[in-house]
Amino acid sequence: MAPYASDDSTTAGEADEQRSGRRRAARYVVPVTVIGLAAATIGLVPALADSGDPDLQEITAQQLIEKIAKSDVQQLSGTVKISADLGLPDLGGLEDSLMSGAASPDGGGSSAEPASRLMELASGTHTLRVAADGPDRQKLSLLENAAEYSIVHNGKDVWGYDSKSNEVYHGIASGSPKHEQRQPPALPKDFAEEALKAVGDTTSVTVDGTAQVAGRDAYKLLIKPKQSGSTVGAVTVAVDAKTGMPLKFTLTPASGGAAVVDAGFTRVSFAKPAASTFDFTPPKGAKVTEEKDVPGTADKSPKRAPESGKGLGKGLDGLDGMKTIGEGMPSGEAGGDLGGFMNSLGDKVNGRFGSGTVFSTRLVNALMTDDGKVYVGMVTKDTLVKAANAGR
User: Of 145, 183, 231, 270, which is most buried by a Cβ count within 10 Å?
Assistant: First the structure.
């Protein structure tokens, strides 16, 4: 990675800060097997402001990635709009029934439990209010029709509150010694970090002009796969010109149409939020569920999927991001109605590997072979079949 240019006026402290920034940026430019973006040859051509957009100082893609890595925003408040359209099959009332059963009293769940509620962001359009004051104080509110769901992290405590059901969930802060709980991405920076981890040598990364997001000047970072077979069309990240924080993230599919994920601030301030923002006391009459009382929360450490054979993260003509992730019951053995239901959601395919079923969304496809292997990636159905034929 090329260093920033510096002149004789650079102080020792500034030089140290630049070196620190480059070290933090380094984790983004190491080839990593994720999501089939299989990312980036860094564009070195400076971007000029588009007509009508902010006229900002020229910057290269490499410098912009470093700017993101060095960003250390500790305090903010604002509103985020997030839309997700993965093109998942319509399961009718089945999904709602499963979710309501998981949160029912008999199931020991709570409608205020954070992880399950944040999974709602995986589909549809949602509006969030967010606030942060350092690593120990954050608040996220999911605004709904005539209701609101909030997660409040204040010190060691995490509170979830569902105003519709008047239920409260109380747990231990993520990252505490007791356990660590991974939450789904919700903010533009969360999505951007995942995309930047994929930086490698088979995707083009350039600066694609400038924009204004939530009233702030921003550069646009454009990530596009070079190889064929990817379901990803492009990723665009709008990066705040002053702070380096991603303000908007958009992922469009290769098939065209609406964005698969579009998350961006509509309002943002980097002033310190009022301390009262993070205060929470369970409302009178609310049902309070303690984390320790919920079945299955004794050990929340991440579990790796069992692997069968060799992963497809390397080789196979550069089809990074694909992997054989499991081996289990052959699909033909899924008994009775369940087997028929599962097969109805996918397309039967055949090849040198035998036969199987491909389950598709607008972005992620999965091939389950009849002998129990599973291939998953942000790649097309034909690419999955090619992977299975290669016997990886």
Answer: 231
The CATH class for the domain spanning 75-187+273-293 reads mainly beta
Residue type for position 67: K
Residue-wise pLDDT for 188-237, tens only, equals: 999 999 889 876 788 899 999 999 999 999 999 999 988 888 899 999 99
DSSP H helical ranges for the chain = 12-26, 61-70, 94-102, 114-118, 188-196, 336-344, 381-389
335 touches 372 (CB < 8 A): no
- Indicate if the pLDDT at residue 276 is higher than 70: yes
pLDDT at 76: 97
With beta carbons less than 8 A apart as the criterion, state whether 320 and 39 touch: no
Helix, strand or coil, per DSSP, at residue 239? strand
Q: Is the pLDDT reported for residue 168 higher than 60?
A: yes
| Residue 331 to residue 115: CA distance in whole angstroms | 30
**Domain locations along the chain:** 12-69+188-254, 75-187+273-293, 323-389
Written as six digits, the tokens of 153 are 């992290």
